[in-house]
Amino acid sequence: MSQTVVLEQNAVETQSITLKFDGCSSDANPSPIVNPENQSITIKFDDQASNHHTIPVSIPNVDSETEAAVNEFLRKHGSSDEESVRTDAMNDLWSFIERQEIGTVVVLVKFASDVKNFELLEIFCQRVADVIAKKTVEEVREIFNIANDFTPEEEQAIRDEHRWAFED
Amino acid sequence: MGSGFSSVLVMCSTASGPPVPAATGLGDLPESVVGSVLERLNPQEICGLAALNRAFRAASSADFVWESKLPQNYNSVISRIFDDNNKFPSNLCKKNIYARLSRPNSIDGETKKVWLQKGTGKSCVLISFNGLSITGIDDRRYWIRVPTDESRFHSVAYLQQIWWFEVDGEVEFPFAAGTYSLSFRLQLGRPGKRFGRRVCNCEQIHGWDRKPVRFQLSTSDGQEAISECYLTTPGTWNLYRVGDFVVEDSKVPMMVKFSMMQIDCTHTKGGLCVDSVLICPK
Question: Do A114 and A142 belong together in one domain?
Fold first, then answer.
């Protein structure tokens, strides 16, 4: 599967790039979106990854209730193209995830990243972000059991480097 | 206490939950995944988390994270602010572009300052009285310039008295899509310092209680707002809101014109300080 992108300047073709995609479904139809403001090319293709899982998937290190909720999402989300069905599936999974212990959500983030399921990643990353938001660095370290691998000098240097974000 | 406390959290929560193995900690996820979490936080939070650990430090500098915080038309903003005489540094990563643009930068011969509002990534524009068209500004019977540190431009225009009070201005700027408010920063009374303390001379304040002041704004795409109010609270700087305007298309720079008038010539008015006009995201 490949797609050709033609770059023009002042309506004159300057370059032609052929993009080849490996390992995507033959249903995928990538079309590049060019943003002239920052000269970026974004290629989004209809991610059929959720349809590539053989449901039910097996998720290591989570309990059976969680695994069932994720599989229910995959089944429901993949079963229909209708926006309302997919939104319902996401909302259901979101409600479930909000009630789970944060360690479970981190395991799920890793899982979603490994299987490259972008919808799952979106839900789980948003949950982690919600938990992190408005907390101090020390609180985040404690909640997620993250070791500080900086020396005190390094940590201070990083805080100084980012002082601009907190100045008025 | 730290790790012991956390493992108690893990074990007590869901009775059927297995303990989380250390290998799947948040700090061990790939940079792109940590970045996907950071993308959903605001710039201050992202910068704060850079000090968490090395993985977060790396992810907090990822271009894709900051691309999502910059306004879509940030290249137009750069072109508006910087030129050959004042060059924008090249080869900055997106985070440093964001940092550079969120500092106040002067434009239009230093009569205006612009900066990205850190939380929203949308631009604020502050226009000094020097960038405004004030009727009678050069006539010292009416207006004088007063140096003061109460203004970001370090001086303000002080009106002693006048019949025809009119202040006009305009600015063209590549605003990002969104809704913006426009306000005049004004104070009744003349600012000063005595023995290092802030004082305000209110003796010349007069005429503002007779009729209200009329504020107006209009945009290049036909939006308009009008408001009228009486100036109040001598000795305090106030932002008098004129109204809002909406930017739909960030690809087209918006021209905004605005004015403030009290032209009832049956009475004089005076004792007013005009500092600036502020446009900021709502």
Answer: no
Q: Give the pLDDT score at A88.
A: 92
Shared domain for A37 and A120, answered yes or no, is: yes
Do A120 and A152 fall into the same domain? no
Contact B67, A37 (CB under 8 A): no
List the domain range (segments joined by +) for residue A78.
Answer: 2-132
Q: How many domains does chain A have?
A: 2
- Answer yes or no: do A20 and A57 share one domain: yes
ipTM of the complex: 0.75
Give per-residue pLDDT as tens, B234-277: 999 999 999 999 999 999 999 999 999 999 999 999 999 999 99
Pairwise CB contact (< 8 Å): A107 & B74: no
Three state DSSP letters for A136-164: CHHHHHHHHCCCCCCCHHHHHHHHHHCHH
pLDDT at B5 over 80: no
Q: Which of B25, B40, B43 sits opposite A144 (nearest CB)?
A: B25
- Residue in chain A closest to B3 (alpha carbons) equals A145
Same domain for A87 and A111, yes or no, is yes
Q: Give B239-249 pLDDT, tens digit per residue.
A: 999 999 999 99
Cα torsion A133, A137, A139, A145: sign: positive
B contact residues 253-282, partner A, Cβ 8 Å cutoff: none
Most A CBs within 10 Å: which of B53, B66, B67, B103, as the mutation test of the A interface? B53
**B139: buried, middle or exposed (CB in 10 Å: 19+, 13-18, 0-12)?**
exposed
Nearest residue in A to B72, CA atom? A37
CB of A68 within 8 A of CB of A97? no
Q: Which 9-28 residues of chain B touch chain A by CB within 8 A?
A: 9-10, 13-14, 16-22, 24-27
Beta carbons of B118 and B103 less than 8 angstroms apart: no
Nearest-CA distance from A93 to chain B in Å? 17
E-assigned strand segments in chain A: 2-9, 12-20, 31-35, 40-44
Contacts of B114 (CB under 8 A, 6+ apart): B77, B80, B81, B104, B105, B107, B123, B124, B125, B126, B173
pLDDT at B30: 86
